[in-house]
Design a protein that fits this description.
This protein has one domain: 3-Layer(aba) Sandwich (Rossmann fold). Helices cover 42% and strands 17% of the residues. It contains 12 helices and 11 strands. A 7-stranded parallel sheet has the order 3-2-1-4-5-6-10, with helices on both faces. The chain has a two-stranded parallel ribbon with strand order 7-9. Bound molecules: NADPH dihydro-nicotinamide-adenine-dinucleotide phosphate. The site of NADPH dihydro-nicotinamide-adenine-dinucleotide phosphate has 25 residues, from helix 1, helix 3, strand 5, strand 7 and helix 6. NADPH dihydro-nicotinamide-adenine-dinucleotide phosphate (NDP) binds next to helix 1, helix 3, strand 5, strand 7 and helix 6.
Length: 300
Amino acid sequence: MRAIIAGGTGFIGQALVGELRGAGWEIVVLSRSPGKVAEVFGAGVIGMRWEGGDWASLLGPDTVIVNLAGENIAAGRWTGEVKARIVSSRVNAGRALVQAVQEAGVLPGAFVQASAVGYYGPRDNNPIDETAESGSGFLAEVCRAWEASSVALEAMGVRRVIVRTGMVLGHGGALARMLPPFRYYMGGPPGTGFQGASWIHLADEAGAIRFLMETLQAQGPYNLTAPNPVRFRRFARVLGQTLNRPYRLNVPAFALRLLFGEMADEVLLSGQLALPGRLVEAGYVFRFPELEGALKDLLG
Ligand code: NDP
């Protein structure tokens, strides 16, 4: 089996490549700079550029395309320009992949489209699964456009899986940004800490994507979140306890808004309690279902 992974040089992509290589998959990574692919993975992973669509000659029923490409959402303030890049980098990647498939006239066995639990918008009360409607706000808008960018493949008969991912915990990403204040005895949740934190260990993110690639009946949206989401105040407590540091120093909402503007409201001060209903129903067994075990594995 062959995986063609767009954006495979990133945080999730690198873990996915490791997971798939271990299972014997052949890997092709699509990147804006294929030289980076050799730097990141060394020999054994083929790096190709998007332009020209040469990679499409590798398509066939034993190939699965995974689309992870997109500009970082939480890197800083959302100026008009940054917002435009967040949307266009995702929508253009999805459309370019669809166009290359159309032009090649050969279909892949399946297509995995990245998305995020931000699809559901800010929801601080009840846990939700994939049956919930999309919500309000910029992130929900981005996710709808992102998911729609490759929908044309469904009409062509391609099995399309959408992975609505929560906050991925690994060495890097969101967790690396949260650690410094905790290490310096100033840790605590953002704002009230009542907002939901739908997290997933990086090993489960990669494991679940592989599971959905290999499960022929899998199609449609799947929440990629651990089965035990928590509120941020509990997340801060478990993180503090794992590091043996205090965890009660709430970061005031006004300070986060001052620093990060709208991004603070949508990414840090609101959230969802998203459940992986369809993934569990399909038979995926989580390696790290509880936050304590996940953080201990990464930081213990
Ligand atoms: P990364 O930012 O680590 O990597 C994404 C990859 O996308 C990069 O390696 C890069 O590949 C490519 N990329 C970056 N900017 C652009 C751009 N402007 N245009 C085209 N391609 C670009 O992301 P993650 O691995 O963390 O996440 C993968 C996807 O999953 C992302 O779309 C992300 O939004 C989504 N997601 C991630 C979550 C997380 O917690 N990490 C949570 C929810 C969703 P190259 O430079 O090789 O072209």
